[in-house]
Amino acid sequence: MRTKLEITFISISFLLTALLFILLGSLFVIISPNDIINSILSYEMLYALQLTVTTSLIAATIVMIFALPTAYALSRYSFPLKTLVKIILDIPMALPEIVIGIALLMLFGNTLLGEPFRMFNVYIIFTTTGIVVAQFFVAFPYAVRILYSTFNYINPRYEFVSRSLGYSEFETLRNITIPLAKNGIFAGGVVTLARCIGTFAAVLFVAGGTYLKTETLSIALYLNLSFGNINMAITAGILLVIISFIAIFFLERYAKEQYI
Q1: Is the C-alpha dihedral spanning 195, 197, 198, 199 positive or negative?
Q2: What is the torsion angle, in degrees rounded to the nearest 10, for the CA atoms of residue 67, residue 68, residue 72 and residue 78?
Q3: What does the longest C-alpha to C-alpha distance in the chain come to?
């Protein structure tokens, strides 16, 4: 028999889940199914869908590649200015995306940092590369924070035992630490991909809201809403919900199969 506390907590979970479901589900009933299908099949929406998925997967992969060593260093090593590094890495999570977008625009524009990139024919501002850059800087702090907490929960004693048996530091990381951290790595990957898919303001400032060039789904929603194309705007929102649901569903299913 369930206790009162158990029933209360489960009820709260169901209540908030129902409210969230109604909130997201309302998007699907505002316009007719025919309008949704016609909007999805339009060239503009297919382009935005393909661009969003491609850039998000690239950005999320790069984020995880750099977040793993960063979080491990913060968790395991002592070095000068470590506290300051942690604070700076956490700051973007407290800032509106628009601040990150303006900062990136200023940094990679006509500045000392932007010029060297252009010398090597790497153009970031108002290009699709800018989308990946914006998604990276928005999602990176979240990935580092999750992985940092994960590594902190792993008892260093397992690593000490591995080192005492003659395994190198890298072998210990690969065979002991990473397997023990797979839950956190998986969670970090899910959150990172979700943040990349939903990035809007930073993408708008760095890559620009150019029609059929840097038009991700969130940008398509903004542009069509500005022009009064309500059907297209709502369809873009619906696609964002569907993509997020599919991505998280398959990742959860993979985690279940792998007993993560």
Answers
A1: positive
A2: -40
A3: 70
If we measure between CA atoms, which residue out of 62, 61, 90, 99 comes closest to residue 204?
99
Closest by Cα among 159, 195, 155 to 67: 195
Retrieve residue 137's tokens: 């800087």
**Interatomic CA distance for residues 138 and 99, integer angstroms:** 11
Nearest to 93 by CA among 138, 148, 144, 61: 138
Question: Which helix or strand (DSSP H or E) is residue 81 part of?
Answer: none
User: Which token pair is 223?
Assistant: 């542009």
Q: pTM for the full model?
A: 0.88
Alpha helices in 26-127 (DSSP H): 27-30, 33-40, 43-76, 82-94, 97-108, 114-119
Span 52-69, pLDDT tens digits: 999 999 999 999 999 999
Name the residue with tokens 């590649």: 65
CA 41 to chain centre: 26
How far is it, in rounded angstroms, from Cα 132 to Cα 239?
Answer: 20
Number of continuous H segments (helices) and E segments (strands) in the chain:
15, 0
